[in-house]
Amino acid sequence: MKDALNLSISRLRAAYLAGELTPTQLLSDIRTRLPEGDPDHVWIHVLSEAELQPYLDALQGADPGELPLYGIPFAIKDNIDLAGISTTAACPEYAYVPERSAFVVQQLIDAGAIPVGKTNLDQFATGLVGSRSPYGATRNAFDPDYISGGSSGGSAVAVAQGLVSFSLGTDTAGSGRVPAAFNNLVGIKPTRGLLSASGVVPACRTLDTISLFALDMADAQAALAVAAVFDAADAYARPAVVGPAAQDRFRFGVPEQLEFFGDRQAERLFGASVARLEGLGGEAVSIDFAPFMAAARLLYEGPWVAERYAAIQDFIEAQPEALFPVTRQIIEPGIRASAVAAFQAQYKLADYKRICDELLDGLDFVLTPTAPTLYTQAEVAAEPILLNSRLGTYTNFMNLLDYAAVAVPAGFGDDGLPHGVTLFGPAFADGALAGYGDRLQRALGLPLGATGHTLTATQEMAHIPAAEPMMRLVVCGAHLSGLPLNHQLTERGGRLLRATESAPAYRLYALPGGPPRRPGMIRVGEGGAAIAVEIWELPERQLGGFLAGIPAPLGLGQVELADGSWETGFICEGLAAEGAEDITGLGGWRAYLQRG
Fold it and tell me: Which are the catalytic amino acids?
């Protein structure tokens, strides 16, 4: 798709802010590019002009600078509610029209995002193939003879084809990661409960999470930052917890037991990703992967299938013939699971969780293939359950063990088909995983999805200006990723470059006042220490507005980093140390917050 639109969120925002593009113009352009007849079976419903108009009207008179996703087009997997539009879960007989949008969808709309349509999926989100739908098998964005991956296949292909900036999927067993790998995308499987599941048709309610697809990590994180709002109405929602940040030097696990089912291209690309991460400052550590695989087998070989049955019990008992045959074959046996078996499986899972957590101790993340191989539509049709099971080799354990994960592209085989890798770690390690994943994707220099654009591409939409000048900014406190003032950077188009440390020449103080609490980093002649910081990149034209919000005694000046370089960053007047708590010994603001 050489003529695909460049729908990078930062580029669209720049065009809107410059007055060179309107949401109406963009959505009209997108609609003209939707393939007639939807031959790839991406969509279940595309919003009509009349259905789109209220979203466009809501942006009339709004300030693009005040809405972080102003005019940004996105797609919604059709097991997630959009008010006034039928939710089918890929089962026409099950369909209903919700009065309100899912909580996450509403957060995105309130931030200015515009829904383009509802996307195809494996029926009731049961499958990793993208083929189990009465609306047709979604076709791979690179070769229609191959599967898209599932169950969020339509959401992935919509992004890969350049029809939306990002999309929502769901992920119970890998549905937010496998389609990312097969369509050369970033896939975010957040910490379970970080994104509300209100308004989502459940698969396994205790395990489900909404997932995100984007062409690159910056766009995925921009959407995640808006969507990750605590929802008290969702009993399984969890408030965000400050997690670790990506580091310059890091240790990552690599499974001792690797299975590619004879796919030498996937094996080669995984090895290349390991080497690339080592070149970026990582130390690879071999780990025993048997406990993770044992936990994964519990998902479909244990009683959790009963939870899928419970999710649609009334419907499946009233209209069993309405289910796609293979979907029914998987879900129906769930009624036979016993309570005894359920408790026994929970005990096994707790044992595996303890073992796996110990294996993760001392590691910043674990790297796996996202999927061991990629199958054709014909192969999956011939062996639908066996091959689907193989695709979950490196994904099925993730939500059971309460881990966060990001899937990133790993390159292309000699056949031109994409493969991917996944980085995972403990719950609430989302920010650090995104940082490492972003470095890996940028280091590979791959095209974005199937659009033909790259992270370093110079080609632009005709009405979108070239990339604007950027400046680097060192932050050490409430502007760190995931903290209360970080939105002041992300809403201005800021992007996290890396986490690092200052030179050992600073003292750090917890200043009085707030909320939010703020630190002051003061350079000293002696007795200084290295302080954890992050380096961000911010459009130069946004600096004035950003500076206006910085209160005394804080300001911007030159900060010396651990490698001896100097960058613009937050500094503090020396007099502020009087009456402030010296927290230098903790090494950084995150450590201070975690201390409580």
Answer: 77, 151, 175
